[in-house]
Amino acid sequence: MLEVDCPCVTPxxxxxxxxxxxxxxxxxxxxxxxxxxxxxxxxxxxxxxxKLEKDLAMSADKAAExxxxxxxxxxxxxxxxxxxxxxxxxVAPDTKNPLSDPYPFNLxxxxxxxxxxxxxxxxRPETAQGIFVNFKDLYYYNGNxxxxxxxxxxxxxxxxxxxxxxxxxxxxxxxxxxEHFVDPDDKSHPKYSEVEKLEFLMxxxxxxxxxxxxxxxCLGEAVSKGIVNNxxxxxxxxxxxxxxxxxxxxxxxxxxRQHLPNEMAHYAADCWDAEIESSYxxxxxxxxxxxxxxxxxxxxxxxxxxxxxxxxxAEPKEVEKLVITPIKKELGLAFKGNQxxxxxxxxxxxxxxxxxxxxxxxxxxxxxxxxxxxxKTVTITKKMVTISKEKKKEHQRVFTPSxxxxxxxxxxxxYCLYEHSFxxxxxKAGDEQLNVFRFPPLVAPIxxxxxxxxxxxxxxxxxxxxxxxxxxxxxxxxxDITGTSIGKxxxxxxxxxxxxxxxxxxxxxxTIRERDSKDQIRVxxxxxxxxxxxxxxxxxxxADILKKYPAHTSASADE
Amino acid sequence: MLEVDCPCVTPxxxxxxxxxxxxxxxxxxxxxxxxxxxxxxxxxxxxxxxKLEKDLAMSADKAAExxxxxxxxxxxxxxxxxxxxxxxxxVAPDTKNPLSDPYPFNLxxxxxxxxxxxxxxxxRPETAQGIFVNFKDLYYYNGNxxxxxxxxxxxxxxxxxxxxxxxxxxxxxxxxxxEHFVDPDDKSHPKYSEVEKLEFLMxxxxxxxxxxxxxxxCLGEAVSKGIVNNxxxxxxxxxxxxxxxxxxxxxxxxxxRQHLPNEMAHYAADCWDAEIESSYxxxxxxxxxxxxxxxxxxxxxxxxxxxxxxxxxAEPKEVEKLVITPIKKELGLAFKGNQxxxxxxxxxxxxxxxxxxxxxxxxxxxxxxxxxxxxKTVTITKKMVTISKEKKKEHQRVFTPSxxxxxxxxxxxxYCLYEHSFxxxxxKAGDEQLNVFRFPPLVAPIxxxxxxxxxxxxxxxxxxxxxxxxxxxxxxxxxDITGTSIGKxxxxxxxxxxxxxxxxxxxxxxTIRERDSKDQIRVxxxxxxxxxxxxxxxxxxxADILKKYPAHTSASADE
Lengths: 559, 559
Hints:
The structure is a homodimer. By secondary structure, chain A is of the alpha+beta class. Chain A has 19 helices and 26 strands. Chain A has four domains: 1-23 and 107-308 and 400-426, Bira Bifunctional Protein, Domain 2 (BirA Bifunctional Protein, domain 2, 2-Layer Sandwich), CATH 3.30.930.10; 25-105, Herpes Virus-1; 318-391, Signal recognition particle alu RNA binding heterodimer, srp9/1 (2-Layer Sandwich), CATH 3.30.720.200; 431-558, Anticodon-binding domain (Rossmann fold). In chain A, the strands form seven sheets. Chain A has a nine-stranded mixed β-sheet with strand order 1-8-9-19-14-13-12-10-11, with helices on both faces. In chain A, strand 22, helix 16 and strand 23 form a beta-alpha-beta unit. In chain A, helix 3 (40-54) packs across helix 5 and helix 12 crosses helix 13 (339-347).
């Protein structure tokens, strides 16, 4: 996988091509007196939910109406939203003032590039576009071979109208995106077999539409039944599942939800969101979409640079090709100044249109033909054009690759990881609850704490040496040489989610304590760094380590 | 060192406090007909240099004048620059049109936060401010102890008027900054002894002013002679030297240049730039500045939140404290509605102002006192205020920390590293030059290539297994299973700067070739990953490896 690092400030032309300048909008209403802005759909959603919860005398018809609105909320146009807001008398939540009609607000931060003020730019709303515009170089770097992927991690910016949900919806966030380019005629994946046996909670379209909940499904079966569109999409769904659960996301609170037809961009072949359950509900944390050839085509059209791939045939293939030859002399006589536009319209015909015209011309000798650029219909006669199919030898096939995109909202994943990793346990004294983060060793920002059991110069020196050997081995660690009780120091380290604590209670061997089990083993000082490294990097489990080293039991140590 | 990740989009108030909104400008002139913009100082600089180079008949006086302008260019005001541009008849370089007067252009990319249009924001021009505004939390996280440092790496944005010098001056770039907070009364550094014996090219102020060149100096001596202001600043200079040379920067083309008084911000105590020589000349790649307490004070003033540190005394200290007690009743009688402003002005007096007032009041009974907020002078009598010094026991000292900042322009360093790492050597055939990047193993993006000597299924399987074992060991690697000659494949891998190439020429042992010496050793297949890992991670040198494994000599292999 290639990694790239593209700029955040993006010239307007790129985001014009991608569609963001015209379509990356939310509908907004303004408090007509104070000018405060609100998302129109949020206000309507809150109103419907509120009524459904509190108005117990509501008729069944009315309740069905509110439920219907909640279901189709994303599909409502500005006019429809505005009409509903008027109908229900929704006013500004803070002031009760009347609201403006909804109108689109572009969510990109706008700026100006250079001093002249004539080059508008935007802060990228996603990192993907930087990869698409660099497709030619990336394809070349990969030896002009498909499939290949490029990845990027960096900041993305969305000027939300009214951010909600704490850290989950912010105006600047870290996005990690993979764009996997693939032949649209062959979406198999060489490593598919590594994920096809995985089973986890999936929430396909039909389960959602029939009001059921997510079900444990086998990924390979979902592909063979056509629930997941193709192998490559499934491969990334599987890898996202493995990634998130390895981070420490609870697999019972992780589901893959397929987009409903009304959620999906018109060009997308299929799209699944990895949703994680948190105190805010089910949160979209990773989107895995088959964006088809849409993006590369859009940039090709706008830039005039063909973002395409070639497949060289082992042997030349014979193909039938449509050949349209306008007879310019005849067309000139018939259409004079309009000749050029008629010629272009004839040449632009699709295969079906051309073959239809050919058959009409052969039977009737003439045909009515609509020339859009002239805004009228003209009569084309047999003399004015020849249409044929010719056999040609082709040595290669040129096509626009499809792109399959897993897109990771890093901040949201980390937030959910905090929720899923946090637990409380009673202290030994039983009078208070102690906070623990159960971060897996691979994820924990600090892998190990080192402290002397009691304050004394010898033990402190040993602690210092161990800390240094851990640092040299690349293991992040923290010394605690305060005189606080050992129990309190363990509690502190648990609260930071540090998986291992080394306690120096002699000058030859020390104990290593695991955070969640509170098990302790005894290890000679020389071995500490190697043992902690092995288990921190996931090359051994704590269970493996427990078998190899003697357990240490202490009457007083752990609270 | 703590690491933080602050947003790029920054509210105006933060950059107002830091001074960037008012002062982060360059002087610009416009082509009066086309509107094209130029940096005023660049045009004047180009004019003077051009004249000095080309006008061989120039008088000595005139030459001295141009040289003087080049020396003081950074100090010229808009008026002075404009006058010189007029005097020399400088016109727009592309069109020869007349130019506007110079005026300041703010280099920050401006945007608007949220939908209302009333919250201006800017893309951060440096990452440092994010650390300063979070000082309180960082200090707390560090157990309210100094010194400590916070670091940040991320994008910075400067809307350059007319970027030049290819990749060296771009509008968006990666900046890595460390803010080391320290007691202004004690700028020693605990690890200073690790760097004080280093010797490298330094270019202190006095050598620059007297027209000499940079000299090899011992860092410790530079500190003891007062050339470098303090130990902490020197510690970071030393670490920057070690960092850059370890990356592969040629130490003969690296110098540390001290800022001249006219280059340095007025608040800075001392500032040194690590400059690297490239084809563009000496390029500033790292700035190492003692910014004193300026930034924390500026944010304290603007926000009203005290960004300070405390030093607890082992024993309480007796100190004399100024006590100003306005007698509100008397002031109310005299000043009525203005009483509050007079009270505030009295309380805001410095120690000197208060003691001066005290002595006048004692001798004359009254004093004229200017109240800025009233824009007038009032008469204060003896009855209206008491001023005294009282002895108090203090348990702690409260102060604003100084900050010492190494700031790394990552893109510039990487660009210079390319230049310093690139060399050409004749091919074996002697008919062409082969390109090589001599990236040290630690830095090379790809550590190892693996290829079968000849195309055959067995060797390819071995190559695949070795590649997999390297990946498992965390060593980035690339397979080359094309049928290209072995010499060409070595040349390819050299051009990418890959330090080691594994060639499979049997199913039991393989050769490892080092890029620059072209030495080869023979290693059993099981050991390959461990050997490459050791030398890639810098735990062994190639010389160490050569001693341990048998050399392999091949008649035909290397071009």
